[in-house]
Design brief:
The complex is a heterodimer.
Chain A lengths: L6 E3 L4 H11 L3 E4 L5 H6 L7 E4 L9 E4 L2 E4 L5 H5 L2 H6 L1 H7 L5 H4 L4 H7 L5 H9 L2 E6 L2 E6 L4 E3 L2 E2 L6 E8 L6 E7 L9 E10 L2 E10 L6 E2 L1 H7 L9 H10 L11 H20 L6
Parallel strand pairs in A: 1-3, 2-3
Antiparallel strand pairs in A: 4-5, 5-10, 6-7, 6-10, 8-9, 11-12, 12-13, 13-14
Helix pairs in contact in A: 5-8, 7-8, 9-10, 10-11
Chain B lengths: L2 E8 L2 E8 L4 H8 L18 E4 L2 E4 L12 E3 L13 H8 L9 H11 L8 H7 L11 H10 L7 H4 L1
Parallel strand pairs in B: 1-5
Antiparallel strand pairs in B: 1-2, 3-4, 3-5
Helix pairs in contact in B: 2-5
The chains are: A alpha+beta, B alpha+beta.
Chain lengths: 289, 164
């Protein structure tokens, strides 16, 4: 229950961190909040040669505005983002999802970027990035690239990140004030990973859905965008929306697994129910008689 | 592997030492600094027994490296009671409400609640109980702990004066 030996460095700048990652040739692991990595180290499930602690890099922290988006620094602590007034006003579903991440004590250390970059398929923040259409800015000594969250996740805990790369920003595009938010997760206890969860945002213009971004978590090997449901919703008048039919399309995009907590069938059934119910509640659609 | 010279404030006193990279803050506090009130339960962030305050926030000390706490202000359960032995309001509430049995988990619960009620803050009972989802107790069934939360919360105005 003690970690295997490793070297530890705490660079002060992004450039310094990128140099260390490049020199390590794949033997380095980035330490952000540590709320997932430290258990893996303690259990010796992860045995890096060198830990690169990014907590002292000021350039990776804080919430700011960039053109058309809210930029969240990856090393921003979850409790700080939870208390950020701009995020609460502009991206309320981001804050709602974040309030379900871990526990009070883990949110005091855990970071936004740590959660996004880890890619736990049942976690809230990767799915939120997918739903809201976030773009992840990644740097290495080879250059900078910007990857849509929808192309970032490859498998469980697997992303397009190369060993020498560091997430330097997560940009969440603007959603208009007063947009509709969707969020529901089913867990065994508060703070647990979701058995089934959905997160999303919708805009309504002139009685029709103008824009939709919806994603599942706990419903497959990665966070999963509900692309069929999004396509079916956009352009549709509120009066024409059949929540059950849309929920069926949404679940059709998932690939849930069976484990000792829940079966594939349970996840699909509950997913369909919470999706339809969220649409009905948030869009004020009455249930058919 | 690499060793690091570190210094931090623990319960108001300066403490320095040399640690291997892999030493957790919990092991440093217990083994090097002697604050054995930091209880190590699961060592993978599930039980919350090792909760301490780092720079005023409750964190799991098994999920932080000692070297990461270099320069930090750390408070353990030993730092709560007054020098004359007067219990901290959270400790007093636990005592009054029989909020512990074997006591192993208690420092973690107490530190979580102490962090949230600093400076006379009185969060809601719901907020306090919610924060304790990160602490496990195998003895009490939590009822005494929840009563202690009620006593410490803003909804309990009867006791408001004594914690002010």
């Amino acid at each position: 229950m003690k970690p295997a030996p490793f070297d530890y460095v705490a660079p002060q700048t992004i450039d310094e961190a990128l140099q260390i990652l490049a020199d390590a040739g794949g033997g380095a692991t980035i330490l952000a909040g540590g709320q997932t990595l430290m258990p893996l180290l303690n259990l010796r499930m992860s045995q890096p040669f060198i830990l690169v602690d990014i907590n002292r890099i000021a350039g990776l922290q804080g919430v700011s505005r960039v053109d058309g988006a809210t930029r969240v620094g990856p090393a921003t602590r979850q409790f700080q983002a939870l208390g950020d007034e701009r995020l609460a006003r502009d991206l309320p579903v981001f804050v709602e999802a974040l309030s379900h991440v871990g526990h009070h004590q883990t949110r005091n250390r855990g970071t936004i970027g740590g959660s996004v970059a880890l890619g736990e398929p049942a976690a809230e923040m990767p799915a939120t990035a997918v739903a809201l259409g976030a773009t992840i800015e990644i740097r290495s000594q080879r250059g900078t690239r910007r990857v849509p969250a929808r192309e970032f996740y490859v498998g469980p805990y697997l992303t397009v990140l190369e060993p020498d790369e560091l997430v330097v920003a997560i940009d969440y595009p603007d959603w208009p004030q007063g947009h509709v938010t969707l969020f529901r997760e089913v867990t065994q206890r508060p703070g647990d990973f979701a058995l089934v969860g959905l997160v999303g945002a919708l805009t309504v213009e002139g009685g029709r859905i103008a824009r939709a971004g919806i994603a599942w978590f706990g419903m497959g090997p990665t966070p999963i965008a509900a692309v069929q449901a999004e396509a079916a919703l956009v352009g549709k008048a509120l009066s024409e929306i059949d929540p059950e039919a849309i929920a069926g399309l949404a679940v059709a995009d998932t690939a849930p697994f069976t484990d000792h907590h829940a079966s594939t069938e349970y996840r699909r059934t509950v997913g369909r129910r919470i999706f339809a119910r969220q649409l009905r509640e948030k869009l004020d659609i009455r249930e058919a008689a | 592997m690499s060793d690091h010279d570190i210094a931090m404030t623990i319960n108001g006193r300066r403490h320095s030492g040399t640690v291997e990279s892999r030493i957790s803050l919990s092991d440093f506090l217990r083994g090097d600094a002697g604050y054995t009130g930091v209880h190590v339960g699961c060592e993978h962030g599930v039980c919350g027994a090792c909760t301490v305050m780092v720079d005023g926030r409750a964190v799991r000390s098994c999920l932080m490296l000692a070297v990461q706490a270099d320069g930090a202000d750390v408070v353990t359960v030993e730092g709560l009671a007054a020098p004359d032995g007067t219990l901290h309001p959270v400790q007093q509430a636990f005592r009054d409400e029989h909020a512990l049995q074997c006591g192993f988990c208690t420092p973690g619960f107490v530190m979580t609640l102490a962090a949230l009620t600093q400076g006379g803050a009185r969060p809601s009972e719901e907020e306090l109980v919610g924060a304790l989802s990160g602490n496990l107790c195998r003895c009490t069934g939590y009822q005494g702990i929840k009563r202690a939360c009620r006593r410490l919360s803003g909804s309990n105005m009867a006791d408001a004066g004594e914690h002010a």
